Amino acid sequence: MSGSSMKHNLNKFDLNLLVAFDTLMTERGVTRAGRALGITQAAMSNTLRRLRELFDDPLFVKTGSSMEPTPRAIELSTPVALALEEVRKALNQEGFDPMMASENFRLGMIDYASAMLMPGLVRHMSQVAPRAKMQVVDVGGDEEVANLERGAVDLVFSRFQWVPPKVCINRLFSMEYVAVFCPNHPGVEGGSLSMDAFLASRHVHYYPRGMDNTVVDETLAEMGEKRNIIGKLASFGMLPAMLASSHVMAVMPEGAAKVVARPLGLRVEKLPFKTPLLRMALAWHPRTDRDPSHVWFRQQVKFVLKEACWRDESNCEDGIYH
């Protein structure tokens, strides 16, 4: 159907098709989309057929176990999602009651960010919004913005060295990188961590997706130095027990270090050299910018992070609360 025909027949247009399209963009599968909408696979397949006829485009192409959107579907995704969000807002004018809310808030972040945020957020949400749910999606690098644009996550907590286009961003705070190790680590039994002790130590290197080369190693390279890295981990969850049970050292953001060090009695020391700060931020898509439930949830995330990671106001970026 041409754009002209669609415009002339808008009074006959089935808005449920746009809901189905938006769900397909999120779920990337007919069965999963049908389940999310509460309809059968056959009914969802018929809906996809109607969408393809409507836009004269395949829209979604089978690739392995999922369906990938065509360029036309990607072009449609943002305006459709924004339009549906405005309709939902118009139909829901009662306001947002956290104690009665049953929303499922989806957060995108790498696992060291999860370690900083989730313990406190779970405790806090159980008190202020006991019926709400949360889902953590592991994202990194270019996936952060892509997941926001296609509606796979509602909010991303990550470092943002640049301001991504087409997203709203709230810069939060800056952190130093620190060294974490067991209390009886050889060469640093007392006092501060020296450069000689740092370089002599055996290091375990955590590298989340999209962050293989850390600013720490880049800074050392500029100084003509190099860490003795004896192991590389893609998962932050393995680090704490490894640090507590062996004489190895790890470098991590101080916010994550505070979370993992306290329960295991690990030492946290400043690095014996200066590195660029790690700047953390929240990012979300414009379609949820004014949604009452999402505005409220972002406020809760910032409250928990403030308590957990930067009680010192000097680390707070200007204009965090707005």
UniProtKB/TrEMBL annotation:
<dbReference type="InterPro" id="IPR037402">
    <property type="entry name" value="YidZ_PBP2"/>
</dbReference>
<dbReference type="Pfam" id="PF00126">
    <property type="entry name" value="HTH_1"/>
</dbReference>
<dbReference type="GO" id="GO:0003700">
    <property type="term" value="F:DNA-binding transcription factor activity"/>
</dbReference>
<feature type="domain" description="HTH lysR-type">
    <location>
        <begin position="13"/>
        <end position="70"/>
    </location>
</feature>
<keyword id="KW-0804">Transcription</keyword>
<dbReference type="GO" id="GO:0003677">
    <property type="term" value="F:DNA binding"/>
</dbReference>
<keyword id="KW-0238">DNA-binding</keyword>
<keyword id="KW-0805">Transcription regulation</keyword>
<comment type="similarity">
    <text>Belongs to the LysR transcriptional regulatory family.</text>
</comment>
<dbReference type="InterPro" id="IPR000847">
    <property type="entry name" value="LysR_HTH_N"/>
</dbReference>
<dbReference type="Pfam" id="PF03466">
    <property type="entry name" value="LysR_substrate"/>
</dbReference>
<dbReference type="InterPro" id="IPR050389">
    <property type="entry name" value="LysR-type_TF"/>
</dbReference>
<dbReference type="InterPro" id="IPR036390">
    <property type="entry name" value="WH_DNA-bd_sf"/>
</dbReference>
<protein>
    <submittedName>
        <fullName>Transcriptional regulator, LysR family</fullName>
    </submittedName>
</protein>
<dbReference type="InterPro" id="IPR036388">
    <property type="entry name" value="WH-like_DNA-bd_sf"/>
</dbReference>
<dbReference type="InterPro" id="IPR005119">
    <property type="entry name" value="LysR_subst-bd"/>
</dbReference>
